[in-house]
Amino acid sequence: MDKKFENMHKKVERVKRLEEEARKSPNPLFNPAHSELKRLMVHDDELSHEARAALYRLMDKQRIIIQRKIRDGDGGTGELNGSRLPKDRIVSINQKIKTKNKEIGQVVKNAEAEIRNVEAPLPRPKDEASKKEKIKLGAIVSIRDQLREIQRNGFNSRRQRELTLVALSYVDFCNESGGEMDAHVEGKLEELLKLIKGDSDNYGDIMNAAKSLDKILEEDENKIRSKTKEIAA
Amino acid sequence: MTPAEEAKRIEEIYNEAIVKLDVLAQEREKLIKERENIIHGYIKELEDKKVAAIRKSLGL
What H or E segment, with its residue span, contains residue A45? Predict the structure, then answer.
């Protein structure tokens, strides 16, 4: 019994030695000691269990070695030292992308500015303005003052009230928009003012003057009309 | 400028801007692709070298 135990003990010791030998090798799974352990696991019934356990431990050892090599990146050979990320090229491309982004922003800004210019009312060119005969602020103020006076003194009729308010609205509009008005409008206003003041009692004359002014107002767009409505309201 | 002319001009400006933006977007996309290719190329090269070095160190 002791002999048998002694033999067994020797066999186990051998397995330990083989494992130790394999462990010392740079590649625990690729050396003669490991091959012997595999042979014992397959062919020696008594040592199969011990040898299998030793092989598993060696696999663990090998895994640790591989993990370390992977972590170090180059397997300890130093061969990867030459590999470098081409930072200069990437920085250059990043710069180009940044420039491109700015160009895109600029295109959008330019388009927005152009659209704003189209939408904004264009200032009347000076040469065009100079072609038309204008009267100055003083003339407008004079007509307005006379109309206001009529308003203050009270209207003689509904017609006079309407005409005065219409004329006033137009004068106010001209005054607000720069103190200028076309000469033909000035003529009509003066004619109307004369009628309003009672220089003519002829109802037909008053109607004609009102119609003329209406026509002028139509030509001068809805802005004046809305202002007229505001005042008359 | 009449409202119709105004609308037409705005549409023209809009279409011109869209064409320019399309071109710029394509150029930008190209640059991004180029940058990706450089980085992917570098990573692939590094991985290949890494695998080769590990295999060599294991005697495979």
Answer: none
